[in-house]
């Protein structure tokens, strides 16, 4: 929230005091305003991909490979960003493994790398692998054997254990120990490892664990790394490169469409305080789902992020309390006749908002999916009511107790609103799915907490520079009488517990895993957007820019 300052120099009674944010302009200029699909090239890619996909499919379902080989293959396919082609085959093979239809060779039962890999893959696919599987690597007192965590020889096994530990849930002490010990050991040995793909994997994992990473960013990086593997499968690597390039063409086409939509709205010219972040909005949309079948959903989500960003900036970076009160009431009524009560700049916001949802309704009605728009409007009304309460706190310098702040902050994090928006374009998001989400399931509650706190930590320094008094960190510091550093440390501990609850939430059988993972992906977005305590959305130069370039510019 921006600080409120006097921006006029006269002594008029009508003088308006507004906040000042001074957000930096877009980094992208006209880079994404035009794109011409090379149909000849895309057809050529598609023909070769079809052949390579069949070859890969046969490898996945082959009955001739050992279980350990099958697990490594599935992991490689997923890391390369290809698993969306083989979802049924992979789920079938892992389910067979979970049910004991495949067996390890005797020597593999004590192979830390393979056991941890199987555990991670099963849990990633909502197959409830027990953490007790790791007891074979512990002593009678429950501590891990020195041969496991004290050796420099099995770095690959330690890395596998470390990555698996990020699938832990509440109360799994053995995985808490596995995380602490494997992380400490990897940090210790990493500087002394010879230059190799393994060293790169270790260093990257310590900075960005796989399961919390933005899927497409992680895949883009792994494609380059996999090319250096001595054991690489050339067909898999070729498929990954072709598939990435073909899918990138679709993403560029969508990004061009989105950019043109944004430019036609012309909000940047008419609302100078609004962050010009439509490319970053698309990055968020593609972080929820990158697959071709979700093209419509991706664009709807990106547009929704842009709209809520405009609304957020209106509350955060320009509106006075009196204006915001009227604006909030108008949105609750959702009636174009309310526009006459609004100041001119808010008329633009209000018209844009109503027109957006009217267009959504027109787009989804022929598909029998207009019911989702009703849920989205209600989510918008809820978040706007919460924005207004926050504005009152911020403007008046009120520091609520931390729980009160979080009760509101979990709404203003936008996680619920944006998840509802993400479901609009998903054909498998039925009325029952929207009802499930509106009941605020555990995975959503955990998502709200993780995204809110990561946002608070990432935006803290920028908000303090703008003179903001009321932040989540300040609320925590005041209530508990601790320093900023201690407050941030404790908040990160809350985030860790939130991730555990997110992991547990993936086991919710009320809806499909395809639905659950979209909720989970919002926390992954928060992880990458606010990485290293930085607001990568508002200030993308040091945040999202390199990722956007790697996904949508470089091939």
Write the layout of secondary structure elements.
Blueprint: E1 3-6, E2 17-20, H1 39-61, H2 67-79, H3 87-98, H4 112-124, H5 146-149, H6 155-165, H7 173-189, H8 197-207, H9 215-226, H10 234-265, H11 267-270, H12 278-288, H13 295-317, H14 321-333, H15 344-364, H16 371-396, H17 402-412, H18 415-424, H19 431-438, H20 442-465, H21 472-480, H22 484-505, H23 513-529, H24 545-552
Antiparallel strand pairs: 1-2
Helix pairs in contact: 1-10, 2-3, 2-4, 4-6, 6-7, 6-8, 10-12, 10-13, 12-13, 13-15, 13-16, 13-18, 14-16, 16-17, 16-18, 17-20, 17-21, 18-23, 20-22, 20-23, 21-22
Verbal overview:
- This protein is an all-alpha fold.
- Helix content is 64%, strand content 1%.
- The protein has 24 helices and 2 strands.
- It has helices spanning 39-61, 67-79, 87-98, 112-124, 146-149, 155-165, 173-189, 197-207, 215-226, 234-265, 267-270, 278-288, 295-317, 321-333, 344-364, 371-396, 402-412, 415-424, 431-438, 442-465, 472-480, 484-505, 513-529, 545-552, and strands spanning 3-6, 17-20.
- It has a two-stranded antiparallel ribbon with strand order 1-2.
- The chain is globular.
- Residues 1-13 have low confidence and may be disordered.
